[in-house]
Every structure is written in structure tokens, then in C-alpha cells.
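[job 4471] stage=fold_predict status=RUNNING
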Amino acid sequence: MIVQWFKKLFSNGSVAPAPIPVKEEVKEEIKEEPKLDDLTIFKAGEMLIYTYDKGGEIVKADPMVLFKRMAEKIMELDVDIKVALSGMKDSDVAYNKALEKIRWIFEVQPFDGTKGLTEVETFKLLDHFIYFTDSTKKNLSQSQT
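[job 4471] inference complete, writing C-alpha cells
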């Protein structure tokens, strides 16, 4: 489930998105050398930052840092989620293990009455991150054409 998403997301087999090829027409349109400022300034509109609520604190995170953290736990997390959803004997144990892994990935705390995320919110955070990365990849793929 999550492993397939992760493999699809990085279909070139790396832990980083594939480089964006530059079309020949675009290369021909660039007549002059780029200015130094164009090479050294990364414009805010080009940044892909993932923003989420940790349950009382809004956090901006580099999605690749979150990918790397997820990559460390992806196989175990996938199994835990499958077992948790299966209704098998240890599904409650697997549910709690999955919850802890998601909290570790996003560095969120359980809801304590004033701050933190509930269990449902924690799972929704993972879902939202997957949606964000899928949407980002689609947008990057469309800009290549």
C-alpha cells in the first residue's frame, strides 16, 4: 500500500525526484547568459515546502527530509497498516506501532488535552502528505511538457 506509493513516487529508483529535462525549444530560446542573480537566488514561488499543524504549532518542513524519515520506516509502516486494517489477532498492536511511526516521521506528539494530534489527525497527516507529494509530482510532470 504505502510501499507501492513510495515506489511510484520515485519511479526512477532513487530517493530523489528525477531531474526535469529541458526541451530543445527552450534551450534555443535562451539567447543570453543568465545573470548572476538568476543563478544565486532561488525564488520563493519555486520552493516546495510542506506545511502542517503539529497540534498547536504550524511547521514548515522540507518534503525530502520527511521522505527520508519515511524511507527509514516505510516497510514496517506498510506492514503495520495492513495488519491494523486486517482485523487480525494483533491488529491493535500494529495500529499503535503505525501510529508511533507516523508520529516519529512528522515529529508530532499525541494530543494531551491542549496540544498535539489525536490518533485520527495523525493518520490524516500521513494521508495529506501522500496527497501533497502526489500532487507535487503531477504538477512537476505537467510542467515538463
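[job 4471] summary: Strands lie at 50-53, 58-61.
[job 4471] exit 0
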